[in-house]
Amino acid sequence: MTAVDTPDLLDYDDVLAKYEPVLGMEVHVELGTDTKMFCPCPTEFGAEPNTQVCPVCLGLPGSLPVVNEAAVESAIRIGLALNCSITPWGRFARKNYFYPDQPKNYQISQYDEPIATDGYLDVILDDGTTWRVEIERAHMEEDTGKSLHVGGATGRIHGASHSLLDYNRAGVPLVEIVTKTISGAGARAPEVARAYVTALRDLLKSLNVSDVRMDQGSMRCDANASLMPIGATELGTRTETKNVNSLKSVEVAVRYEMRRQAAVLEAGGEVIQETRHFQEADGTTSPGRRKETAEDYRYFPEPDLEPVAPSAEWVEELRGTLPELPWVRRARIQADWGVSDEVMRDLVNANAVDLVIATVEAGASPEAARSWWVSYLAQQANTRGVELGELPITPAQVAQVVALIDSGKLNNKVARQVVDHVLAGEGDPEQVVADHPELVVERDDTKLKAAVDEALAANPDIAEKIRGGKVAAAGKIVGDVMKATRGQADPARVKELVIEACGG
Ligand SMILES: Nc1ncnc2c1ncn2[C@@H]1O[C@H](COP(=O)(O)OP(=O)(O)OP(=O)(O)O)[C@@H](O)[C@H]1O
Ligand SMILES: [Mg+2]
Ligand SMILES: [Mg+2]
């Protein structure tokens, strides 16, 4: 049967009327160890191509791998934080495939003896409810090299004239975290996918095992998706969408794939088991390679490495190093700040909790920190189409703005302009204020008094009213003075001066 890859998409609601969406997430995290998984090469991101390589990670004959203990330690901590059982004895496995990104022609991975199995991660959905995602396993493996297909008309692999290879990434320690299939989420399946990756990223960040940068590839997510006719008992054929590089993209990719598959099925076609690539630009997926099955990889235990056999004592010791986990921390913070469930939920939804916490830790009051992140900065993130945490301003910088307001140097209005300059990459708020003296609040009473006198002279009838005791009339004069000083005055001080000038 010839399947049309992308017929007209079905509305997501129409998909749900007939099909149950099923998900499965594979997340690869690059561990932040100093050296690679099986050799002492450095792992730093962004070095000149092929400068961080040695015979082991280049797979030269005669070289032998040695396990990086720090990587095993991180993998165990990840497993524990995900409520998994840690295997007392497990081996690495060779995953055989022929592709130039892996010069050995196999990747050292784990197969049927992963370091961690059977856990779960509770994630919070937009409406505040909790969804439990079951974890099938977390296993260790080495990253592959990077290939860059260049030249030719399209720059894509088939159109490219040649490929460039960078093996700096080959052998970087990875942990792959694989969920069991997730079903029953219905309309919320795309949201569950995003919420899961968000929660996992927060968790990994708190464990300090990886810098979890989706944009730099240190956290990579593959979204498996399939449809099951409602009432069916067997899973449908899945596709595996790669290249989903932001939290938003996870949700967009899953929804798109569900709508595409439904359209394929409705047109009488078949979903093909394959990898697909997410296109950030238009939110669609396009076919990648037909998926090998496990047999194609001819897995077998890696003969060059000792089994991994963490003692119960070591595992318990590592359990003791787990930090306060993000959701426990959130509950504690909520109690500390004395905010309602609704306020906390808004913060969680805006992905602002950790940013607010960090801003408070940098010296701002919880109220001020919260208000900056959920109002002005949230608007800025929205206009730019990025996550709050992706805005080019740090919690410490926000705390600095708050301090400048508290000290009377900035008022709320000009503070926003200072933030705009910070977002434009002009440096810390202190620096911005030093570079833009016009943004600092006028504290010089003589200058303000002159502006007040001028405004009163221009509005004799209002001045008369104020002199007669109608303090409320001062508002118009304060407004004029604020205008005259281009917003650079403290309105409360101006009001005092107006009343003083009118003999109050
Ligand atoms: N029918 C299905 N629909 C949606 N998800 C599925 C389905 N069957 C399996 N999955 C999910 O797909 C993922 C498969 O990941 P796994 O790492 O086990 O294998 P793989 O993708 O074949 O291997 P590789 O690591 O080489 O990509 C799991 O999260 C699993 O729950
Ligand atoms: Mg996998
Ligand atoms: Mg996979």
TrEMBL record:
One GO process term, biological-process aspect: glutaminyl-tRNAGln biosynthesis via transamidation
Alphabetical list of Gene3D superfamilies matching this protein: 1.10.10.410
EC number(s) stated in the UniProt entry for this protein: 6.3.5.-
Classification via Pfam families: GatB_N (PF02934), GatB_Yqey (PF02637)
Family label: Belongs to the GatB/GatE family. GatB subfamily.
Catalysed reactions, as listed in the record: L-aspartyl-tRNA(Asn) + L-glutamine + ATP + H2O = L-asparaginyl-tRNA(Asn) + L-glutamate + ADP + phosphate + 2 H(+); L-glutamyl-tRNA(Gln) + L-glutamine + ATP + H2O = L-glutaminyl-tRNA(Gln) + L-glutamate + ADP + phosphate + H(+)
Task of the protein: Allows the formation of correctly charged Asn-tRNA(Asn) or Gln-tRNA(Gln) through the transamidation of misacylated Asp-tRNA(Asn) or Glu-tRNA(Gln) in organisms which lack either or both of asparaginyl-tRNA or glutaminyl-tRNA synthetases. The reaction takes place in the presence of glutamine and ATP through an activated phospho-Asp-tRNA(Asn) or phospho-Glu-tRNA(Gln).
Oligomeric form and interacting partners: Heterotrimer of A, B and C subunits.
Record keywords: ATP-binding, Ligase, Nucleotide-binding, Protein biosynthesis, Transferase
InterPro entries documented for this protein: Asn/Gln-tRNA_amidoTrfase_suB/E, Asn/Gln-tRNA_Trfase_suB/E_cat, Asn/Gln_amidotransferase, Asn/Gln_tRNA_amidoTrase-B-like, GatB, GatB_Yqey_C_2, Gln_synth/guanido_kin_cat_dom
Keyword Nucleotide-binding belongs to the record: yes
GO MF annotations, alphabetized: asparaginyl-tRNA synthase (glutamine-hydrolyzing) activity; ATP binding; glutaminyl-tRNA synthase (glutamine-hydrolyzing) activity; transferase activity
NCBIfam families for the chain: gatB, PRK05477.1-2, PRK05477.1-3, PRK05477.1-4
Primary enzyme class: ligase
Domain Asn/Gln amidotransferase: 354-502
The keyword Lipid metabolism belongs to this UniProt entry's keyword annotation: no
Name of this protein: Aspartyl/glutamyl-tRNA(Asn/Gln) amidotransferase subunit B
Highest taxon listed in the record's lineage: Bacteria
SMART domains with a match to the protein in the record: GatB_Yqey
